[in-house]
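Form 7-S
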Amino acid sequence: MEAQCVAGITQMPRGDSGQQDGRRAASQYLQQLLLKPGRYRQSWEQYVSRERRGTINQLAVAEVIARHLWSAPRSAADDDITPHQLKDTVSRALTGRLLSRPALALFINAFGFSEHEAARLWRLWNGSASIGVMSGSHAVPVHAETEVAEVLGPRKHQTLSLHDHVYVGEDRRIDRARMLHVIEAISPGVDRIPFLCDTNVLTIEVGQGGKEVSGEVRQIGDDVYFTEILLARTLELGETITLEYWLTYRFPGDRSDPAEREFRRAVMRHAENLDMRVEFHHDHPPTQVWWAHWDGVDGGVVQREAVTLDNQYSAHRYLRSLDKTVAGFYWQWEPESKLIGAG
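Output:
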């Protein structure tokens, strides 16, 4: 893959047991939503006396659900329901043993998941092969080109255009991105393209031009994963297709970490027509944004240019072509002390 997103990768349900696998995947995504720093995690953490890092306290989650049922009971029995009565339901749902339709609806309503998160949970639960979930640890850079090239094998397609539309949420974390990727087959019988990123990505979901995400995930070095996106049709030599896919992210929320204040494209060989847009929440725009080139994925900034946001709070850049480079946006937030003082 010529243009590689310095972000992440995912695993997905597939095969004849798609529905069962889908419910396990929905359970896994549910866990990640509850562990992801932000309001969902804060909802249950407030009921935890001793926190265990990276672990969901099931009784605390049951407390959130019980309080929701007290205010919005499904029946008269919910008026007096206790967290302990809900603990088994929570345990079965979060471990993937049994995530029923009513249980999933209960989680969605109790935690107030966003519309796109709830829709993604239902697509997973129904066994959609177009979406997958990945459990990762932390972001690491992609390894040397020679090592990656050995895994990817001979190049079978080239990028004709690449559009990245990235959304930064109200909590100042990169939340999701929509990608449009136009590719051309440079060998016959191209039915898939490789997808290679680090583990900041929580899900990948394919749309136009995509069939599904391959169930096979391979690890390349430390915390770098590789899978394949299966195309909606097989391309013969010279044929093109537009591939659309969405990514969601799970950044911890460390504003001092440069990796949480940038979006980059690493181009190993050659890519044409890169159109990148980063859209910030209107209530929390950054104080400064730069367009930059880096000295490889591990190196520092070698060239930068200040960027002014448009009236939609977006930074935008179009490049006719890229060759063996890393380019993208990075930004700076208001100092934490001023944010606290303002509140």
